[in-house]
Amino acid sequence: MISPLYLGYLITLVSATITYLLSMGKSKKRKYTIWGIAVMLPISLPLAYSIGITYSFIVEDPWATILLLYVFPVIFIVGLILLLVGIFKKNEVLQY
Fold first, then answer.
1. Transmembrane segments in this chain: where (predicted)?
2. Is the C or the N end of the chain the one with fewer CB within 10 Å?
């Protein structure tokens, strides 16, 4: 059985690996879109949870887990910015 401490890191690692495989061979615009969606949905919450739990173990205070309420929106906004860059980025056309 996997410890809850490591479960979030495992989900994040698997999600990042799948996202990397999905974005291989795509244009930069598509990569930004794929990574934005991936960071917002399957990566941000497990990563914030694991960071909060790890910090809670380090300082030995269960209330320190509330850190995840501050980390989650930051990671989510990073994903939103990546998604918006992917949506509004213009396609690059090579001109000779």
1. 6-22, 34-58, 64-88
2. C
